Amino acid sequence: ERWDEAVKKFIETILTSGRQRRFRVSFETFAKRIAELGMVNSLAQTVLKLTQPGVPDTYQGTEVWDFSLVDPDNRRAVDYAHRREMLPLTGTPSELLNQWHDGRIKLAVVQRLLQFRRNHPRLFGEGSYEPLSADGEQSDHCIAYQRKIEDETMLVVVPRLTARLGFPPVGVCWADTHLTLPDGPKQWRNLLTGMVIASQAELPLSEVLADWPVAVLVVE
């Protein structure tokens, strides 16, 4: 009981105004940074899960941000009505990114990639998996691979270790980093944003990730 009371008093003290508020200010700054990094990691993991070989497993309710810990916390009822209200998704890619707290950006990734999987079963069921290496200043911060079968090609690019890139990790932060493509020049369309990119033998990540931190490209 003494321990419980001490913990309660500690929490009350650090959350009150006055000198003790220094902790709250410091913590809020730290929490904001962790949330930004977590958002990018979540999008990257979602893209990887839905595009790599195998069958993706999406836990009901995690189509948007979910802050469950472990069982039974993650067994709470799913608010399907709220998710239905979020569909159809509206807003430009930049609006979804700027308003990432509401979870629509993750829902957009899940929706668009599941639709693509449904419409291209052979690509995901039988297509090859070819890892791609990046070159340039930020080459260690990129995961990229290609899925391919006959005339269907999909190129996936997501960031890693993004604390060193800034938030959001898009555009000029990628400097001269680029992918060398095995099949020569192509015109690509980003399934997640609609952006069209023409590539030669090299594909600059500052263009691929110009407006969103993740990209799934298909040949136009």
Strand-helix topology:
Blueprint (H helix, E strand, L loop, with lengths): L1 H13 L6 H31 L28 H7 L6 H6 L5 H16 L1 H6 L1 E5 L1 E2 L6 E8 L2 E8 L18 E3 L5 E5 L5 E4 L2 E3 H4 L6 E5 L1
Antiparallel strand pairs: 1-3, 2-5, 3-4, 4-9, 5-8, 6-7, 6-9
Helix pairs in contact: 2-5
Explain what you see.
It is built from 7 helices and 9 strands. The protein has 220 residues and is α+β, with helices and mostly antiparallel strands. Helix 2 packs parallel to helix 5 (104-119). The protein is globular and about 70 Å long. The mean pLDDT is 91.
Strand order of the largest sheet: 1-3-4-9-6-7
Structural category is alpha+beta
Indicate the mean pLDDT.
91
Tell me the span between the first and last alpha carbons: 66 Å
Proportion in helices: 25-40%
Number of strands: 9
Shape: globular
Number of helices: 7
Helix and strand succession?
A: HHHHHHEEEEEEEEHE
Spans where pLDDT lies below 50 across 5 or more residues:
none
Major beta sheet, specifics? 6 strands, antiparallel
Which features would summarize this protein structure in a list?
220 residues, alpha+beta, six-stranded antiparallel beta sheet, 20% strand, 9 strands
Task: Summarize the structure in short.
The protein is an alpha+beta fold and 220 residues long.
